[in-house]
Hints:
The chain has 350 residues and is α/β, with parallel strands linked by helices. The chain folds into three domains: 2-38 and 75-146 and 325-349, Nucleotidyltransferase, domain 5; 161-189 and 262-321, ATPase, nucleotide binding domain (Nucleotidyltransferase, domain 5, 2-Layer Sandwich), CATH 3.30.420.40; 191-261, ATPase, substrate binding domain, subdomain 4 (Actin, Chain A, domain 4), CATH 3.90.640. Helices cover 38% and strands 25% of the residues. The protein is built from 13 helices and 17 strands. The strands form five sheets. The chain has a five-stranded mixed β-sheet, with helices on both faces. Strands 12-11-10-16-17 form a five-stranded mixed β-sheet, with helices on both faces. Helix 12 links the parallel strand 16 (291-294) and strand 17 (315-317). The chain is flat. The two termini are 22 Å apart. 46% of the residues are buried.
Amino acid sequence: xxxxxxxxxxxxxxxxxxxxxxxxxxxxxxxxxxxxxxxxxxxxxxxxxxxxxxxxxxxxxxxxxxxxxxxxxxxxxxxxxxxxxxxxxxxxxxxxxxxxxxxxxxxxxxxxxxxxxxxxxxxxxxxxxxxxxxxxxxxxxxxxxxxxxxxxxxxxxxxxxxxxxxxxxxxxxxxxxxxxxxxxxxxxxxxxxxxxxxxxxxxxxxxxxxxxxxxxxxxxxxxxxxxxxxxxxxxxxxxxxxxxxxxxxxxxxxxxxxxxxxxxxxxxxxxxxxxxxxxxxxxxxxxxxxxxxxxxxxxxxxxxxxxxxxxxxxxxxxxxxxxxxxxxxxxxxxxxxxxxxxxxxxxxxx
Length: 350
């Protein structure tokens, strides 16, 4: 422990929100120091990262859907967990080196937020990838706990706090009390599924193929979960599935909302199911404290409104919902000894 403390004086310990779509890194006293897409460009058929291992994040995302036959832009995480171990290790190593700088002889301690529903095997994969990527010690914390900490909720008190974290690959719903999760649901339906629903709608309705980045732009620019006071339109460009030629069309917020109805309904159902499983005293607390929304999905227009209608509770979007989990991991790292032993994921236990 003394050696670990001494090493900590020279290392830049960091909290990481390792997301399906984006990876954020937070450092004590500096806040969010890195926010880049979880994308890596590799040579096709290999795990060799391009540009001397630097084709990661923003550089790699610009290549999505535009690479020649010899190059593949890969998202190594799927549904919030590692789908490709080697590429995830390369991506983590790049991000850790970028934040840690030239301190080659001292490795950092790292806290990584993971979905609450992942298996022991998936946890071991995160541990192994982070250690091989350059971490001295690795701690895992459930995403809902990290989100609650980052949002400043009183999760250590004997009263209920509820968080709904809608990321790219998973939606994490949890009721917390006394620094632990009392009831939760981890749903592998989230932002990516909204994008996929939009892509399917464009195929079905317009015979047009669009890419995931265009679908995400549609979701952000005109997407909503409930009718808007003034409906929106957007011009979309893609490839005609019949002629094979590029073309454009105009779509409305009404049809994008209808396209996303199914995944949005699944998220709302996960919230109501979690509430149904909560103990009566905890449910009573939530009448006053309400539900807190975070993650990229929290920014979908009118989502808080339809969630409030479905649950009868007040729904609030937290401040800076995109960085909530990452900020929570950094606070967790600063106060490791203050949290319950059960919250520290010991590798020997899994």
